[in-house]
Amino acid sequence: MIDLHYWTTPNGHKITMFLEETGLQYKIFPVQIGKGEQFKPEFLAIAPNNRIPAMVDREPKGGGKPISVFESGAMLLYLAEKTGKFLPSDLHGRYDAIQWTFLADGRARADGRQNHHFRNYARKNQIRHRPLCERDQPALWRARSDLAIAQSSGDTRSRRWRAIRGVALVSTP
């Protein structure tokens, strides 16, 4: 059983989507970020960066004591390894999937947030951020079809994030 510390954000949704796709059992523990619950000591013991989502796997692969994982990209990698799904086992395929997932999780998300801020609150500076956001987006869609983590979680979440943030989406192959 996985304890998922969650709130209804794009980062939270991508983990629930992954858990649903893999059929893992999980229980949601809401963390109301608008009320500052991410700063409570019991949550910080799981996610010292005070950000959702975070999880505790009470039944880790191979047994042993429960393991806490925070940061959504790390959680996706952990879950893919635990289930043996969405991550190729060969060296080249594995690192193709990992690097595309990190692009979607790190760079694309950061550029999307910046674009959202400058588009809505600091329009005069928008010219730098929207092109960066749109530059990386086509690369996500050019990923080969066997890059399952990137497509299952990163592409889905990145597409949702960009749609929320008002960035035009290109057609996927």
Tell me what the structure shows.
The protein folds into 2 domains: 2-83, Glutaredoxin (3-Layer(aba) Sandwich), CATH 3.40.30.10; 91-165. Helix 1 packs antiparallel against helix 6, helix 4 packs antiparallel against helix 5 and helix 4 (91-120) packs parallel to helix 6. The relative contact order is 0.14. 54% of the residues lie in helices and 10% in strands. With 173 residues, it is α+β, with helices and mostly antiparallel strands. Strands 2-1-3-4 form a 4-stranded mixed sheet, with helices on one face. Helix 1 links the parallel strand 1 (2-6) and strand 2 (26-30). The longest helix has 30 residues, at 91-120.
Q: Structural class, from secondary structure content?
A: alpha+beta
CATH topology category name of the largest domain = Glutaredoxin
User: Could you tell me the radius of gyration in angstroms?
Assistant: 17 Å
Low-confidence stretches: 143-173
Helix content: 40-55%
The CATH class label of the largest domain is Alpha Beta
State the strand order across the main sheet.
Answer: 2-1-3-4
- C-alpha geometry: globular
- Looking at the overall shape, the CATH architecture of the largest domain is 3-Layer(aba) Sandwich
Topology order in helix (H) and strand (E) letters: EHEHEEHHHH
**Averaged pLDDT:** 74
Number of domains: 2
CATH homology superfamily name of the largest domain: Glutaredoxin
